[in-house]
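Weekly modeling sync, notes
Attendees: S.R. (lead), two postdocs, one rotation student

Agenda item 3: backlog of single-chain predictions. S.R. asked that every request posted to the team notebook include the full sequence so nobody has to chase files. The rotation student volunteered to paste the first one in as an example of the format we agreed on. Action items at the bottom.

Example entry:
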Amino acid sequence: MLSFMNRSLAVIALIACAAPAFGQLKAAPAGGTTVAEATETTVRFRVGAIVTAKRGPVKDILGMVAVPIDCDEQTVRLDEEDISKLVAGYEFRDLAGGAARLLVFSIPYLDSGAEARVVLTYKVTTRTTPPPEEAEADRLVIARRPPRNLRGYLGPSPFVESKHPKIKRLAKSIRADLEESAGEEELSDWARIEGLYDYVMDNIEYFEGPDTSALKTLADETADCHGRSALFVALCRASGVPARMVWVQDHCYPEFYVEDEEGEGRWWPAESAGTRAFGEMPIARTVMQKGDDFRVPREPGRPPERMRYATDFLTGRPAVKGAGKPSVKYLREIVP
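Predicted structure, as returned to the notebook:
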């Protein structure tokens, strides 16, 4: 058991240092009319794993489960634990300065037919994001010298090919069209970013299907929320605007970063499906992760995997010859 726990701790240690260079994000400024107008929704959100030795005894089980995160628009509090005695222990580890959080657990041994539960229920309060007042939006600017911790949101990532020539040419073409349409009127940076959003919403037909990258979305001219979000994020980054994916339950959407006249920055969301919503999020959904370029260690001795979303994971070994690997059921649901 000692060697297994040492391996488990090695993975936990890897996860603890697995944050990309962009690190901790700036906090949103306190106060302001947009905060006062936000509405709150509180739910009980259950997340975890039920592990079963269905095909004989198993050992050295190590699992990871993504849990909801604290962020500017969301507060997460642990409300209830359901942890089997067979679970040796569990830890929380943050990725990318809190942009994702993993529940990491270990189970030394499960006898044939035995079940172990690692289930947590959170009380999650999520706030909507109303749009800024028009005068406020006109004063928001693209960060000329983005903070060091935002550089990871300016370059390419899995499914976001922001440096590809086709993406760069399209971003330049959209800007030129906006300038021509404006004539002698000066365009605000907010309007320039909104032009990128309008292009995606007007030219990419919504269609339920597999997740597609920015380039694939551009070629197909159809995509679901993922493809639309990936293309908007890529166009933003190609235009020097920090942007990233936001992952909520059964959905994702993009958000972008701009600063006020004092250099204080914050993130603004945009809806990628359904009713148009730029610089606002009228629906409060449980936020799971923010970002699209995580380095996630899986097993000791193997390099971290580069992933756009830190997914659930379980590994284990048969304890006797002829036994199979453990089975797992992941939980992620709103409960009464």
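Discussion: group reviewed the output briefly. The chain has two domains: 2-29+40-127+294-335, 134-283.
Action items: rotation student to repeat for the remaining queue; S.R. to check formatting next week.
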